[in-house]
């Protein structure tokens, strides 16, 4: 789905700009409510798309309405009634049509309808992230229905062809319809588990944009933006969940430094060497506020711990002033909560700074013996750094060579080669 | 009288073949009617395509839900349940309760809504 007239044609054309703004700000909410009324993703999406196309013509003729969201809601509902009249395959078509007609006759939504509307975007998120859909489909569907990206843009960001991505989204929508995946916020007993799944999808979208190992950097930056928008929306809809705020904080604190990670020549810049004045302070401040909010809820979780670690990095006046002892402690807590080789590796690095390279190398020892991590590039890069600081230069050179051989990212490889050369 | 289950297999077909298969619908309906009249038909149904399937397994007390029919070649069809549920979540919940989910897998496939199928078939023939 894309705004009629193209995403970026708003400059200098007030009607096109108003349509683009309504598309960005209102589309997900209108779509989410219409899916509940129609009971079918595809019909609701087609109706919303038609409503935006109609807006371009009508707003140019009659002027931009005072409440564009309300205009689109009514237009989309009427398009949905047209589409439902023509589609006989839906089992409860008559009941759906009756409900839509009743809504169309009301000037203001009833109290029960108004409270249902408040939860519609949450229903949409949980349905798009349902575990009966495979993970790539959850990611694509979430971006497509809740975000503002076109299928083509999602395809480019994930390095697949547009028809492939289109098929993935169509198939997911068909499964939701055929298998009757419910359109609702899960009951309390399933909510924690299902919310973890939602946060995982959002973080995956963010990381896909942030890692930027290949592909179109601009589109990948939009993925970070979309993930943060979803994080803010979840914060608005689930205000009392600490991990929702923890994830939002984590993404904001990373994204605030995105521009500083690559220099004008496209070379990777390590955290310690980044120009701190080029960080986006607004994003970082918002991230710190989100983290404080999470901590006040007193339900620690993995995203909050990761955000707290990132905040310590960001808040240090310079690399030497970083509180490595506290970072090492937070990694220790994270290792207890969700143990993984990545966490162990980062803990070893932090301990290496807090208590000296020998202590870090001790922690690295079991990881280096694990055959499953033999080809894990960051392990060898971190090993090389610790050996260099421990003054074992031949050992460091061997570890750098191993890391270079395993690196898939040109920017990162160049940086490792530079460090090897300075030994 | 002993009961027998007839399991229907076919390759997945493309849209052109699908139209051909749809045209055979009266043959199926006639056949079902004759089985019903003879008092032989207990239940029958048409399943949605395999990509609407969800597989449920329970390992170490954790329910694993995966998209698609992922039975391993060593697993053989051993039984069936036909449940009337309000949605997929309810069906998955009961699938996870079956003891076989702990060592085998339960494939949950939606059965096609025949009344909607017949309505769309009638609509198509009326248009002709």
Features:
heterodimer; A: mainly alpha; 20 helices; 0% strand; B: alpha+beta; Alpha-Beta Plaits; globular
Description:
The complex is a heterodimer of chains A (423) and B (128). With 423 residues, chain A is mainly α. Chain A has 20 helices and no strands. Chain A has helices spanning 14-38, 41-62, 68-86, 93-105, 111-118, 120-128, 135-146, 151-157, 162-178, 191-211, 217-237, 242-255, 281-296, 302-315, 324-337, 341-355, 357-369, 377-389, 393-406, 410-421. The longest helix of chain A is centred in the N-terminal third of the chain and has 25 residues, at 14-38. Chain A starts with 13 loop residues before the first helix and ends with a helix. By secondary structure, chain B is α+β, with helices and mostly antiparallel strands. Chain B has one domain (3-127): Alpha-Beta Plaits (2-Layer Sandwich), CATH 3.30.70. Helix content of chain B is 36%, strand content 12%. Chain B contains four helices and three strands. Chain B has helices spanning 15-23, 25-37, 88-97, 114-127, and strands at residues 54-59, 62-67, 106-108. A three-stranded antiparallel β-sheet of chain B has the order 2-1-3, covered by helices on one side. In chain B, strand 1 (54-59) and strand 2 form a beta hairpin. Chain B is globular.
């Amino acid at each position: 789905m894309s705004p009629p007239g193209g995403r970026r044609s708003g400059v200098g054309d007030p009607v096109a700009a108003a349509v683009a703004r309504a598309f960005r700000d209102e589309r997900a909410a209108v779509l989410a409510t219409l899916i509940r009324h129609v009971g079918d993703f595809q019909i609701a999406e087609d109706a919303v798309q038609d409503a935006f196309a109609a807006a371009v013509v009508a707003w140019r003729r009659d002027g931009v309405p005072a409440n564009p969201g309300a205009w689109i809601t009514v237009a989309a509902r009427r398009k949905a009634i047209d589409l439902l009249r023509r589609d006989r395959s839906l089992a409860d078509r008559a009941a759906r049509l009756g409900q839509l007609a009743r809504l169309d006759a009301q000037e203001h939504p009833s109290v029960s309808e108004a409270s249902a509307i408040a939860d519609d975007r949450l229903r949409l998120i949980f349905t798009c992230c349902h575990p009966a859909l495979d993970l790539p489909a959850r990611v694509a569907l979430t971006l497509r229905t809740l975000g503002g990206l076109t299928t083509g843009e999602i395809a480019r960001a994930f390095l697949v062809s547009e028809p492939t991505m289109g098929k993935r989204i169509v198939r997911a929508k068909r499964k939701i319809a055929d298998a009757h995946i419910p359109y609702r916020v899960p009951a309390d007993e399933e909510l924690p588990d299902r919310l973890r799944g939602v946060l995982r999808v959002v973080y995956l979208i963010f990381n896909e944009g942030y890692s930027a190992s290949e592909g179109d950097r601009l589109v990948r930056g939009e993925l970070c933006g979309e993930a943060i928008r979803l994080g803010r929306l979840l914060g608005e809809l689930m205000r009392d969940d600490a991990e929702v705020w923890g994830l939002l904080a984590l993404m904001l604190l990373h994204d605030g430094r995105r521009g500083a990670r690559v220099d004008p020549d496209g070379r990777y810049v390590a955290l310690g060497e980044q120009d701190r004045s080029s960080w986006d302070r607004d994003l970082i401040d918002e991230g710190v506020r989100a983290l404080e909010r999470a901590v006040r809820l007193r339900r620690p979780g993995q995203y909050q711990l990761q955000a707290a670690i990132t905040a310590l990095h960001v808040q240090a006046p310079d690399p030497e002033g970083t509180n490595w002892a506290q970072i090492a402690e937070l990694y220790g807590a994270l290792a207890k909560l969700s143990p993984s080789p990545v966490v162990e590796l980062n803990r070893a690095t932090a301990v290496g700074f807090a208590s000296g390279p020998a202590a870090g190398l001790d922690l690295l020892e079991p990881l280096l013996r694990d055959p499953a991590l033999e080809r894990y590039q960051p392990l060898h890069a971190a090993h090389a750094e610790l050996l260099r600081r421990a003054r074992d230069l031949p050992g460091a050179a061997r570890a750098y060579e191993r890391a270079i051989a395993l690196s898939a990212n040109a920017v990162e490889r160049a940086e490792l080669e530079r460090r090897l050369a300075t030994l | 009288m002993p009961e027998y289950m007839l399991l229907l297999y076919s390759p997945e077909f493309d849209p052109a073949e699908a139209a051909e298969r749809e045209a055979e619908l009266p043959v199926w309906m006639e056949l079902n009617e004759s089985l019903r009249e003879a008092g032989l038909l207990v239940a029958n149904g048409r399943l949605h395509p395999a990509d609407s399937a969800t597989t449920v397994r329970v390992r170490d007390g954790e329910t694993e839900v995966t998209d698609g029919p992922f039975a391993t070649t060593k697993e053989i069809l051993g039984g069936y349940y036909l449940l009337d549920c309000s949605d997929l979540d309810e069906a998955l919940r009961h699938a996870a309760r079956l003891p076989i989910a702990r060592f085998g897998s339960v494939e949950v496939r939606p059965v096609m809504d025949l009344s909607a199928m017949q309505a769309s078939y009638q609509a198509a023939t009326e248009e002709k």
